[in-house]
Amino acid sequence: MKIFENLPHIDFMKYKALALSISWGLIVVCILAAQPWKGANSNVKLGMQFTGGIDMQVRFKGDVPQDAVRAALGRGGFSDAAVVAYGSKTGFRDYSIKVKARKGQDEKDSTAQINKIREILRGMDASANNDSRPDLNTESVGALADQWVKTNPLNVVGDETAIRLAYDPMLKKIADTREKFAPMTSFDQLPKDLPQVLSGQIKSTYRLGNLSFLKNESFSPSISGEWTTKTLSAVGYALIAILVYVMFRFTASFAIGGIVALIHDILMAVGIFTLFGFEYSVPVVASFLILIGYSMADTIVVFDRIRENSHKPEYRRATITQLVNDSINQTLSRTILTSMSVLFVAVCLFGWGGPALRDLSFPLVIGVITGTYSSIYIASPVVVYLEKWFPRHDSLKQKHT
Amino acid sequence: MTKRSIWRLAVTLFICGVCAFFFIPLSKVRLGLDLKGGVHFELEVQSHEALEADLRDTADRLQDRLKEKGLDVASVRVDALSLRIEGVSAEQKPILEKVMGTFGNFDTSFDAQGARMVQKASYQKFLKEDAGKRALLIIETRVNQFGVAEPEITQSGADGSRIVVELPGVSEAERERIKNLLSTPGRLEQRLKSKLDPTSYKGFPTREAALAFFNGTIPPNTELLPEPETERDLRRAGKDVVTKEKGEEKFKSWHLVETKVYVDGGDISDAHRAVNQTTDANEINFTLNRKGADDFATLTGIASDEGRLISIVLDRKIVSNLSCKEKIPGGSVRVSGSFSKEDADDFALKLKSGAMRASMKFLEEKSMGPSLGADSIRSGIFAAFLGFGVIIVFMLFYYRWSGLNAIAALTVNLIVMLGLMGSFNAVITLPGIAGFALTLGMAVDANILIFERIREELKAGKSVPGAIQAGFDRVFWTIVDSHVTQLFAAMLLFIFGTGPVKGFAVTLTVGVVASLFTSIYISRFIYDWILERHPGTKTLSV
After folding, report:
1. Is 0.80 surpassed by the pTM of this model?
2. Does residue B485 contact residue B408 with C-beta atoms inside 8 Å?
3. Which residues touch A161 (CB under 8 Å, ≥6 apart)?
4. Which residue of A has its CA nearest to B222?
5. DSSP 3-state assignment of A364?
6. Residues B163-186: what's their mean pLDDT?
7. What is B187-352's CATH number?
8. How confident is the model at residue A265, as a pLDDT?
9. In chain B, which residues have their Cβ closer than 8 Å to the Cβ of A241?
10. Which of A273, B69, B466, B473 could be disulfide-bonded to B462 (CB atoms 3.0-4.6 Å)?
11. Which domain holds residue A37?
C-alpha cells in the first residue's frame, strides 16, 4: 500500500507567503482570544500549581446536584470556587472543587480553608443533621485508635504502647477498606476478619456519611511562582539546546528555520489549548516539552533530505526553491506516515485515557498535526528566505555527514 | 545461519534476557502516588528562624560573660539580623572587645554608641543546613513511628531547606494528623534509669523478660522503654551493617526508666561532635540554656550520688544510657565514649532534635485515594494498549511482511524499556503510562523512515540487498538527529520536573534510547537474516 503511487510534484513553495500569513494570523487570533495580558482575568486557565490554591475531588453518594454544591460553598464564603462535575460510577457523583489562593494568604490559611471546605461539604450530608456521631468515611482513624486504646475492647495486656501496637493492624484494615469503597455505603463492607467486638463498637459509635474525599491538593502561593519560572526555563533551555545541536549538525539557516517552526508549533498548540478551555497543569507543560522534541524530529527528516539533495549533481544548478520543493515532495509520504503513527496514540490517549490523560494528550494531538505542517510550511520557507537574503554560495554544501 | 547472524541473535537474546530479569517479578514495579494513592508533602524549613534563635542564645551568653567581667550596665539586644550592644563606656571598651572576640562565628564592628555583632556568612550557612538536618531527622523519626511501608523522604533546595515526604497508601482522612505529627519537634527527654532495674547498660533482652522480672506489674512512676539497635551495635558485634528498610526497627533491649523528665530537649541549645585533643577520640559537646543548665546540674547530682544511669529518650525510645561521675553545673557538657565519627554526628543530631530551631512551612500537600488511581490505571492502560494495537494493525496493513519486522523491533523495544526502567527502580506514574504509549508511537517512526527509504531505493532500481543496505545507511543520521532532539526535551523534563512529570521524563528518555537500538540493530538483523535464508530474492514485501 502506498499513499502516493508516483512521486508527487506539488509546488509547496509557491504558497509560502500565504501559508506563513495564515498560520501566524491564526496564532495572533488565538492570543487575542486568550487575552493573557489581563492577568488573573484572562481566558488562560492555570492549574493550582501555578496560582496557588486548593484542588479537591469529592464523591457523593446519591444524586447531589452540582448547583447544590456550588451554593453550599457560596454560603460558606467560597463563592469563587470552581465546581466541575466528573464522570463516576453509578449511584455516585464526583465533583472537582478548585479554590484559588487569595492574595497574601499563607499556609495556615490554606489549612483552615481546607478544613472549612470539608466542613461545608460534610454539612451537606442530610444524615448528619439528626445523628451527631462521627462519620467513618471522613474522620481520621486516629480518633478511633484513641478510643480503642482507652476502652481496650479486646482486653490486650500491657501498657499504652503495647495496646496501640495490638490495634494497629486492625486500624490499617479499616482505613484500607474505607479507601477501597470510597465511600463505604454499609457497615457490612467492614473487613470480615475484624473481631466482632470491634465492628460492633464501630457500628454503635460511628455513622456512614454520604461523601468521600478522593483527592486533595493544596499549593502555597509562594511555591507557585517558582513553578512558572521552572517550566518556562525548561522550555527555554530545550529550545536553546536544539538550536545549538541543529546549528552544529546543519547550518545556521536550518537551525533558525527549525526554531521558528518550533515556536510556531508551541504557540499554535498553546493557543488552541487555551481556546478550548483546557487547564494548564505541570503534566500538560511536560507534554508541551515532548511536543518540542517531536516537532523538531519531524522537521529534521525534511532538512536531512534537503541537505542530501544539495550534494547531488542534478541540484548543483537548481535554485534553492526547487531544491526545497523537491525534497519536501520526496519525503512527503514519510512525513505524513510518521505523524500518523504518533497521532494514533495521541488520539487514543485523548479519547479513552480518562480525564487526567485527556488534558495531557490534547497538546500532542494539536502539536503532531501542526508539527507536520510546520516542517513543510514554516521551517522550509524560512530556510528558503534566509538562503535568498543571505546568499553564501556553498552554505548548504559545506557541511557533510 | 552465518556466524554473524548467530552473534547478533545472541546479543539480542542476551539483552532481552537481562532486561526481562529486571522487570519480570512485576512486584518490583513501583507505582507513583498518583496511581497508588497516598499523601505527599513538600515542606520548607524556615531557616531564617534558626538564625534568629541563635542570635537570641548568643545574646544570653554574651550578657552572662559581660556580667562576669563586671559590665552589668551593658544592654544586649537583637536588632534585625544582628546583635546590638550599648551602654558601655569608653574605658570599658577594651574588655568588651576582648569578650566579643571569643565569639569566633561573628563579625564585630564598633561605633560611637556601642558595638554590633553579625553572624559570619559561613556560620549562617552552617546554621541553615543544621536546621534542615534537624527537620529531616524529626520527620524521619515521625514517619517511622507512623509505620508506613516504603516512605520516601528527600531533601532538596539550595541549603537543604526543602523536604519532600511521600507516604504511599495513607488515606486522605489521615492527612491532618500526619501534618501535625510532622511539624511538632521531637520529644527529647533526659531521665533517670530506675533503681529497681539492675541490668545497667545491658537492659532486658525483650519486653516479656522485663515484665517477667517485675512479676507482670511495672513499678509506679516508671515505664519500660526500648532501645533500638543501631549500626554501631552491629559493627561492634562484628555483624554486617545492612541498610535496613525504612520503617523497620529492631529493639536490642528494654529498660525500666523513671517517668519524671529532668531535662527537656527544648533546653538544649546546641550539640555537635568534637575531637578530644589528647585522646583523639570522638566526643559530643552539648550546651544548655539557663534553665536547662540548672536542671542538668540536679540530674547529674542525683545520678553521680546514687550511681545511676541517665537515659536519653527520644520519642519514647532510648537513644543512649550515660553515666556521670560528678555533678555538672554550667550547662556545657561533654559526652565521651567510643564513638565513630558517624555515631557521634548521629547522637548530636538526636540531642538537638528536641528543639525545633526553625518552623516548617507546608508548600504543597497532596493526597489522593487509591480508588481514583485505580480508575486512572484502568483507562490509561486501556488507551495505551489501544494505541499500540492501532499501530500494529497499521504497520501490518501498510508494510505487510516488513510490518512484522517493525513489530518485532517494537516488542524488543518494549522489553528493553521495561528492563531499563526496572533496573533503576523507576516509578510508574499516570503521565508515565502515556509516555510509554507515545514512545512506542515515536519508535515506530524510525522503522517507517527506513522502510520508506528502502521502497525508494527499490524503485530507483536497486537490488533487494542493495536497497536494504542503502535504506539503513542513508537514514542512520536522520534517525540519530531526530532522536537526539527528543532526548534533549526528555532530559530537560527530567531535570526540571518532579513527581509524576519525572516519571514521564524517565519513560521518554528510556524509550528514545531503546528505540535507537531496536530500529537500527534489530530491524537490520531481521532483514539480513531473511536475506540469508532466501539468497537472491527479487522481491521484498515492504
Report:
1. no
2. no
3. B316
4. A159
5. helix
6. 77
7. 3.30.1360.200
8. 92
9. 488, 492
10. B466
11. 12-46+220-389
